[in-house]
Amino acid sequence: MMASVFSLDAVYVLTGVVLFIFAWMTFADRTNPRRVGSGLFWLTLGIIFAFGSLMPYWLTGLLVLFMVALDGAGRVSRGAYQSDQASQAEHARRLGNRIFVPVLAIPIVTFAFALTFRWLGMDANRGALVGLGFGGLAAMLACLKLTGGGARALMNEGRRLNEAMGAVNILPQLLASLGVIFTAAGVGNLIAQGIQQIIPANNLFLLVLANCLGMALFTIVMGNSFAAFPVIATGVLVPLIIKPFGVNPAMAAIITLTAGSSGTLMTPMAANFNIVPAALLNMRDQYGVIKFQLPFALTIWSFHVLLLWLLIKVS
Amino acid sequence: MHAQDLLKLIGVVIVVVGIALRLRTTLVVVVAALATGLVAGLPLFSSEGFFQHLPLLTKPGQTGIINTLGRAFADNRLMTLFIITLPAIGLSERYGLQEQAANLIRKIRVATVGRLQIVYQLFRVLHGLMGIRLNGHPSFVRPLIFPMSVGAAQASGSVPRAVAIGSITTDNSLATARGTDPIEKIKAANAAAENYGNFYGQNLSPVQAGILLVFGVMQGLGFTVGVWDLVWYTVPVVAASIILAIIQFSWLDRSLGKAVEVKQ
User: What are the sequence ranges of the domains in chain B?
Assistant: First the structure.
C-alpha cells in the first residue's frame, strides 16, 4: 500500500489530474481564441500522464500524434490573464518572507524523498522524482493556507504558467522518443563509422579531436550526452584511442562524457535544458539560452580536447 | 557505407532544416521520427496485438514506430513532471513571491547579477556532490533566481526600479518595450547558471547516473573502471566550468554596467 502511494505512477496520476483540471478550465475560458483545441491538447496529455502505464503503447503513440497534429494546425493557444502589480507588491509587504515557504517546500520535500529512498536502499533518483510530485502537492496546500486564495485561483495560476509555455512542454518527451527511434534505425553506428573512415589511426591529437567532436556532434543531434556516450565509446574511444595507446580508461571515458555536455549546451534538441527554460521565463528569443551558452560551450569543449590530449601525453 | 545507410540520416536533415526554418518544433520532431523509422524499414505498428491482421502496417517480429513513440513518450513522463509544481508557483507569484525575492536581494549591497549566478551555480554543483540530481529551472530559476537577479540589477541601476518583476514573466508585451533588453540577458544567464552547475557538477558523486552509465558502458567493453577514479578525473572539468562561468558572468556585470552609463 505504502509502496503504491509513494510510487512514480501515483505522481503521474496526480499530474494527470492537475492537467484534467487545466483542460476543464480551458474549455470554459472564453478569453482563449482556441479553447477547444487547447483544452483537447491538455486533456490528451492528462490521459497519457494518468493512464500511460496501463494503455497499450500504440494507443499512447496515436494520442501523441493527435497532440502534435493539434499543435501543428495551430489549435493550441493561451487565454488572457490579468495581473495586478499593485496588489502583488501589497501582498509582498503583508506576507513578507513567509511567501517563500510553499516554493521552498518543493526542493525540501524532493531532497527528503531522495534521502529516504537511499536510506531504504532504493533508487535515490526515483525518490527525487516522487518527491518532486509530493513536493508540488505540499506546496499547493501550504500556498492555499498561507495566501487564503482559493483552489480555483490556485489552479488558474498554474494554468497561466502552463499555457505560457504551451506545446513546448511536451518537446523533451518527443525528443527522447526521437532518440529511441534514431537508435533503433542505427543512426549512431553510422556516425561512428563515418569518423573511423575519416581519421588517420596514428595521429593521437586528431583522434582525440575526432573523439570529442564526434561526442559533441552526436549529442547535438540526440540532445542527450547519455545517449551519445555508448555509441562514441564503442565506435571511437575504445577501439581507436584506449586500446592502441594504452590509455587510462576511467580518465578518457569521463572526459569524453562531459565533452558531450558541451554539446548539450549548444542544441535545441536538449529542449528540457535550453528551450523549456526560455519558455518558462517568457523569453522573446526561443534560442536565447543557447546563444548565451555558446561561447562558454565552445571554450570548455576546446578545453576537453586539450585536457584529454595532455593527460594521455604525460602518462 | 551504402546509400541506403546514408538515407537514415534523413531525420537529422529534417530536424536541422525544420529548426532553421523555424517551423513548429513538435511537428518537425515527429515527422523526423516517422521518416527515419520508415527509411530504416520499420513498420508503423507492431505485429502483435491490435493491428496484427493489417498487412501493410505491420511486419512480423518487428516493433512499430508508433509503438516505440508511445512507449518512449510514456517512459519519459518524468521530464514533464514539473507541471505539478506550477499551481503553487503561480499562486505564490500572484501573492508577491517575485517582488519579495527582489526586495530581499536589493538589501544585499555586494549582490550583482553576475555574482548571484556564480553563487547559484556553486549551489547546484553542491547538489551534484551530494548525489542529488534535479531540474532546477522550474523549482529555483523561475520563482527565485530570476526575480533575485532583477532585484540585483535594479539595485545597481541597470534595470529601472519602475519595472515590476511580475509583469516581466507574465506579460510578453512589456518585454518588447524599449530598455528592457538587459532582462533578456538576465533570463539567459539564469538558465545558463543552472545548466553549467547541473551538467558539470553532477559527476562529482559516484551514485550519479552519468558515472554509473560510464561504468556500465566501459564494463560492457571489457574495462572495469573505478567509480571514484571517474569522479577524480572530472574534477579539472568542474574547475574549468566554474572559472569560465566566473569570467562570463563578470562580463555580464560589466555589460549591464555599461548600459547604465549610456543611459546617464
Answer: 3-79, 83-263
| Domain boundaries of chain A, sorted by first residue | 2-166, 186-314
In the block, cell 505504502 appears at A2
What separation, in Å, do the N-terminal and C-terminal C-alpha atoms of chain B show?
A: 63
Query: Chain A residues with CB inside 8 Å of B161's CB?
Result: none
CA distance A163 to A117: 33
For B49-82, what is each residue's pLDDT tens digit? 666 666 667 787 788 999 999 999 999 998 899 9
| Helices A204-222 & A171-185 angle (0-180, nearest 10) | 130
Count of CB atoms situated within 10 Å of the CB of B160:
12
**Cβ–Cβ below 8 Å for B190 and A281:** yes
- B217 contact residues in A (CB cutoff 8 A): 229-230, 233-234, 253
Residues counted in chain B: 264
Size of interface A-B (CB pairs under 8 A): 464
Cell of B58: 505491420
Chain A closest CA to B202's CA: distance in Å? 10
A-contacting residues of B 7-36, CB under 8 Å?
A: 8-9, 11-12, 15, 19, 24-27, 29-30, 32-33, 36
Distance CA A37, CA A22 (A): 13
Mean pLDDT of the region A284-312: 96
| B29, B184, B188 member nearest A174 (Cβ) | B29
Find where cell 555586494 sits: B110
pLDDT value for B175: 44
> Phi and psi for A122 in degrees, rounded to 5?
-105, 175
- Asked whether the beta carbons of A32 and A26 are under 8 A apart, the reply is yes
Within a 10 A sphere around the Cβ of B244, how many other Cβ atoms? 18
Q: CA end-to-end span of chain A, whole Å?
A: 55
**pLDDT for the residue numbered B117:** 96
User: Helix A57-72 to helix A35-51 angle, to the nearest 10 degrees?
Assistant: 160
Mean pLDDT of chain B: 86
Task: Give the model's pLDDT for residue A73.
Answer: 95
* The C-alpha cell that represents A95 in the structure block: 506576507
A96: left (phi over 0), alpha (psi -120 to 50) or beta: left
Cell of B163: 519595472
Q: What is the tens place of the pLDDT at every residue in B115-154? A: 999 999 999 999 888 877 778 898 899 999 999 999 999 8
Chain A interface test: which of B77, B144, B215 (most A C-beta within 10 Å)? B77
- pTM for this model (two decimals): 0.86
Helices (H) and strands (E) in chain A, counts: 17, 0
Report yes or no: B203 and B231 within 8 Å, Cβ to Cβ: yes
What integer pLDDT is reported at residue A189 of this predicted model?
79
Q: What share of chain A is helix, strand, coil (3-state, %, to 5)?
A: 80, 0, 20
Q: What ipTM did this prediction achieve?
A: 0.88
Largest CA distance in chain A: 71
- Cβ–Cβ below 8 Å for A307 and B245: no
Put simply, the answer to whether B76 touches A173 (Cβ < 8 Å) is yes
In the chain, the amino acid numbered B89 is I
